[in-house]
Amino acid sequence: MGIGDRVRGIGGAVGGAVGSAAAAGRSAVGRRVEAGREGLASGDWARSALGALDVPDSPATEVWEYSLGVLICRHPRVPAATAKLLRALDGLGAVRFGPEEVGFDGEDVPWEKVTGLRLHDAFAVMTNEGLDAEIDRVRDVLPPIPGRKWVVGKAVEAAATVVLASLEQAAERRLDTVEVACEITYKGLLGRQKTMQASLFATALLAQRPEVAASLVATARAHGVPVTPAPPLTEDAYARAAALRARTTAMTERLTQARAEAEADDPTLDEAASTEDKALTADPAGAAIPHQATPQTGTDAQHPTA
User: Fold this and answer.
1) Mean pLDDT across 150-158
2) 31-51: per-residue pLDDT in tens?
3) DSSP string, 77-127
């Protein structure tokens, strides 16, 4: 039975009581995500990379940054030479903050210009539409490199894997109560008020790594920036549980599709990786591939060394 059939086959009736509805919904989500993980093990490379991220101080004492582009470069089949060409993706899905600045998606603002940091519930942002918008941006900025379709497929896989990992946490804690700092208000030119919104990947990253999210909030408060909590929820538990199940199903199917598209792509990138592997075999001294190193914090994190 295929992944899609197994995912669609999971579910069941939810009890009438609100408490039972929420509990049953979280249980169903856990089973759906687990079914997706069994057949989508290739997404584990993204989970592993995120799990190796350094945790910044609270408040941050040095620059911490990560992005969807950096994550893709951590894939073991991306040659170092290709990773150089993927620097165009550095700003996509980026989270960056430190003692001096803060920003999302390649746009940074000095803390002295920031007028507010607003929290939103993470679940509201994690939609299939948000994922599609993220991938459209990858296609727009990605240069014509060998294995371009493969890279786009891995971008979908990486983003969907991080979102699924966050959705999976709903089995332990309700994702719709997880508040993530994903909106920054600041003074632009001539003192005009401007707003910066985090993308889906950046929001999912902060939801998946609460220590990072907590550091961002603590850093804002250390600079005297007001932090506004998310607006109160108006949807009942039954509706939230149903929406969570539906969203998890859709995201799992999108991840399945991304894998199929990546595997059907031409083998150009694989050939490049194979060539590099042969070179490393001939020269053991070059066996340490920079793009496979543990993700770093700081300015150099987005630029793997060739």
Assistant:
1) 80
2) 454 544 443 345 788 888 888
3) TS-HHHHHHGGGGTTTT-EEE-SSEEEETTEEEEGGGEEEEEEEEHHHH--
